[in-house]
Amino acid sequence: MRKCWLLGISLLLLGGCAKIAQEQGITERVEPSGGGGQLLPGSNLQASGFLRDYGKLVEVASAKGTWEYVHPGVNWKVYTKILIEPMEVWISPEAGYRGIKPDDYKQIEQAFRDIVRREFQDGGYELVQTPQPGTLIFHYALTGVNPVRQGLTPSDVLPIKAAITAARYATGTEAQYIALTGEIEALDGASAERLYAAVGARRSYATTIKGEQITMTEWKDIVAYWAKQWRTRLDKARGVGP
Asked: Which of the chain's termini has less CB crowding within 10 Å, N or C?
């Protein structure tokens, strides 16, 4: 049970909408964006520095480009409460423009928080504001971000450059995908002990023609998919739900 949820998070760290299923035929993988933190074990790739420790992470054999750590012997069944910490945005060291306006960031973070909160509340979990026993704390960061200087752009366009990559399928066809990078850790609410951590990059929204920036519609679609997977996997780890 526990492994089902953890594998789900590691594989879906940076997923997208339901179209992510199309990736099954892709012959190439995306690595996380480089940062200024510790080297990811067994690689020459530096993480962002968001996580406090990367030393115990192990690359997932079935999902190259994803590293994870799981604390042994966790009883997930006791976790009926969720605390969502504010999402952090870590700018890429290679970003040419490094500014993010507070209001723009607030819009991105609020959408993330609202969607994740609603998903877990609908699943019967109690959303709390302070750490306590039986609480799982989600601590998440969008990493490797390349901000874009905002001009006269539509309100739906976010000030984040979308990493667009060409993905070749086993059939020989190609499509373009938004590639996003993130890091997550789950902490015990009573002890603050890290129970799980992961670093990864995933393609998400499939597209054939894509501008430079991601839209709020795409962002909400991506977050809704993450939230659904996180809640479903936690349900399975706890032995509840359908």
From this structure: C
